[in-house]
Design goal:
This protein has 386 residues and is an alpha/beta fold. It folds into two domains: 125 residues, Copper Amine Oxidase, Chain A, domain 1 (2-Layer Sandwich), CATH 3.30.457.10; 234 residues, Aminopeptidase (3-Layer(aba) Sandwich), CATH 3.40.630.40. Helix content is 34%, strand content 24%. It contains eleven helices and 18 strands. The strands form four sheets. Strands 14-13-15-18-16-17 form a six-stranded mixed β-sheet, with helices on both faces. The protein has a five-stranded antiparallel β-sheet with strand order 4-5-6-7-8, with helices on one face. Strands 2-1-12-11 form a four-stranded mixed β-sheet, with helices on one face. The protein binds zinc ion. The site of zinc ion has 6 residues, from loops.
């Protein structure tokens, strides 16, 4: 059956439930494993609802009594109440479940709000459709002691760039870093460390050292620094996300971004932003290490995941002399999640759903890269004897 999609625009602008009420859509569209399912919406009450049986069929879950079995966990509803349980936890909808004949009717907010928020690894709400996500790639096996350092750019006296509407980069980076940390903590075999989890300033060159300080001897991992971009003149039409790894800048634009991000050095008491010589020295030393190649592979993974999971323009993988990446002993990237100098993108970057999508894409990239990297590391000869 072809999807009915007339409400797509409305849904992009309004919270889900309002949009449904306003658009009087008659079907919930579910996209799963390449096929589209339409679930009829009951509009007879003051709020929209769908039958549990049809919903189960569309989502591909087994209906069990007054509930669903979702990937091994049980979701239970009950007629006449807005409360339901999932994996033993109690949740509340805004409206109660009701019965219609022999059918149990579940408020639409469960499908549009609860499912994509609470089960974001399985479901995503995009362009007016509920979309099943591809199962996450292989676990980062066989190693199980990965440490991922999440670096929220700027902080404290250093606000980072300031958006057209006054948004501070440091707040956006911290919000995304927190979401990413929560998301990664659910992955087996990965431990997460944040360079900062509040509004404080950490010296740029201290940030990668977290892995040496906190990590076990020889522990492998990744370093991800999160930033938001800006054009010198605002407002500006440029939007999109880009991913950097440490090297000499190849373009004028990359050099400008690196200069702006490195300017945080001026907030550090012993920093010396006027002198880039040490940085150049370290860079020339870096060229010979395999870390550079791994960082560029990791950057590609991050860029690919952002491109497929975000609707904002993909500006690709670039390289630049970022002070925060110098001194990292593990593959390291700096992500510019979007432009605060663009009015629309600034607004988007402030929204919880966009922040969650960015965090999801970054988490998927990290898991994907570690799975791949783990195989490579493990495939090395165990002894150098041969
Ligand atoms: Zn920044």
């Amino acid at each position: 059956m072809r999807a009915r999609d007339t409400r797509t625009l409305l849904l992009g602008l309004l919270p889900c439930c309002l949009a449904w009420a306003a658009s009087a859509a008659d079907h919930l569209v579910v996209v799963r494993d390449g096929s589209t399912h339409a679930v009829e919406i009951d509009q007879r009450h003051s709020y929209a609802a769908t039958s549990l049986t049809e919903l189960a069929e569309a989502l591909g879950y087994e209906r069990v009594g007054a509930g669903l079995r979702m990937d091994g966990e049980l979701v239970r509803f009950a007629t006449g109440t807005a409360f339901f349980t999932a994996a033993g936890e109690v949740y509340q909808l805004t409206n109660p479940v009701y019965s219609s004949g022999s059918e149990l009717m579940v408020p639409l907010s469960w499908s549009l709000d609860w499912l994509p928020t609470r089960r974001s690894r399985s479901w995503r709400y995009m362009d007016g459709r509920l979309v099943k996500r591809q199962p996450t790639v292989q676990r980062p096996a066989p190693r199980t002691d990965w440490m991922v350092v999440i670096d929220a750019g700027h902080g404290g006296v250093d606000p980072g760039t300031i958006g057209v509407g006054g948004t501070k980069e440091k707040d956006i980076t911290l919000a995304i870093a927190r979401r990413l940390t929560k998301r990664l903590e659910r992955e087996a075999g990965i431990s997460v460390v944040m360079t900062r989890d509040q509004d404080t300033l950490i010296a740029l060159t201290d940030r990668p050292r977290v892995i040496q300080r906190r990590g076990a001897e020889g522990q492998a991992g990744l370093f991800v620094s999160i930033h938001a971009n800006s054009m010198p003149k605002k407002p500006h039409a440029t939007r999109g996300h880009e991913v950097y790894f440490l090297s000499h800048a190849k373009t004028e634009q990359a050099r400008r971004v690196a200069m702006r991000e490195n300017s945080a050095l001026r907030f550090e008491q012993q920093g010396d932003s006027s002198n880039s010589e040490p940085l150049q020295f370290i860079l020339s030393d870096l060229q010979s290490t395999g870390n550079l190649q791994e960082s560029s592979l990791f950057a590609s993974s991050v860029s690919r995941n952002l491109a497929t999971q975000l609707s904002t323009p993909d500006l690709g993988v670039k390289q630049g002399p970022f002070a925060v990446l110098v001194g990292s002993t593990v593959p390291a990237v700096l992500v510019e999640v979007g432009y605060l100098s663009n009015r629309a993108e600034e607004k988007q970057l402030r929204s919880a759903s966009h922040q969650a999508n960015i965090a999801d894409a970054l988490a998927d990239a990290i898991v994907e890269y570690l799975a791949e990297y783990g195989r490579r590391v493990w495939s090395y000869p165990r002894s150098a004897g041969g």
